[in-house]
Amino acid sequence: MVDRVTLADDLRAVVRDYLDARPAASWRTFANAVGIAGLLVPERYGGAGCGPAETAAVAEELGRALSPHPFLQSAVMAVEAARACGDERVLTALAGGETTATVVLPGDGELRLEGDLLTGVVPYALEGELVLLYAAGSLVEAVPAERETYRTMDESRPLQRLSFRDTPVRRLGDDTAWARVRDLGIAALAAEQVGGAQRCLDMAVEHALRRHQFGRPIGSFQAIKHKLADLLLLVESARSAAGAAAEDEVSAAVAGSYCTEAYLTAAGENIQVHGGIGITWEHPAHRYFKRATSDAQLFGPPQAHRARLAAHVFDGGA
């Protein structure tokens, strides 16, 4: 029997070592070297058949490194969408790292599907070569008539505008799994946010021990001690929330709310601990703050996750 904890820890170490050694490697090179493109793809389609623990381990390391790789949308969301409808072509292509994919969830765009022709616009979509869309009760694959890549505040998470004009689609299945696809995306993002928040805490601690004022490390001052202690509690709590996020919709909503705010706080406090140097372009602190800010909108702000959670708590899941 495979020890899932040991496997996740080993995978985490491999991903960290690779990202530290080759931060500029392409997705195909990275995916083929480490085998993460097909992490969630069933073995019969050429994947590893892993689960949430391994996904969280990889996502956390990607968040720590502010990696631009499309693990979230391609290896998690697109794989789950294709797996739910058993589409062998997409699963096989994704498992081998031959291509990337993105998923458009219901409500992410103004789309009209008439017969097998798709028309409309998706104003913001994560980058992916294959485009899978939930529209009119179906999951379809379509080639956009036009793609426009935005120059975003967080350049490590590219976004595109997708346009369709009577575009032929290939039907993959129905839309019964879209909520699960969304929740797994939220879970992977929460793990990324934990990785980023942990890195912010590590940077703050390193600086507090190294930087001296009045002949002492600033980390010896009570105000800094309390700030770092509060951040440690916040990060560890976020890690617990992210670890349970893939269980169900309620857990995903908790993680979506808590991990988002934890990352924003950690990124902001990291800048505060660093002082003036923390707001310079030369220091990486601002890059984590930008990622935290963009992550806070990716699946909706924390308030949206709390609204979904409230529906379960107060209305019994209605």
UniProtKB/TrEMBL annotation:
Q: Does the keyword Flavoprotein apply?
A: yes
Q: Please indicate which superkingdom the organism of origin belongs to.
A: Bacteria
Q: Where is the Acyl-CoA dehydrogenase/oxidase C-terminal domain?
A: 188-313
Q: Which UniProt keywords apply?
A: FAD, Flavoprotein, Oxidoreductase
Question: Could you tell me which residue ranges the Acyl-CoA dehydrogenase/oxidase N-terminal domain spans?
Answer: 23-86
Keyword check for Flavoprotein: yes
**Which cofactors, by name?**
FAD
Which GO molecular function annotation, any one, does this entry have? flavin adenine dinucleotide binding
Q: Which family does it belong to?
A: Belongs to the acyl-CoA dehydrogenase family.
Q: What is this protein called?
A: Alkylation response protein AidB-like acyl-CoA dehydrogenase
Q: What taxonomic classification does the UniProt entry list for its organism? A: Bacteria, Bacillati, Actinomycetota, Actinomycetes, Streptosporangiales
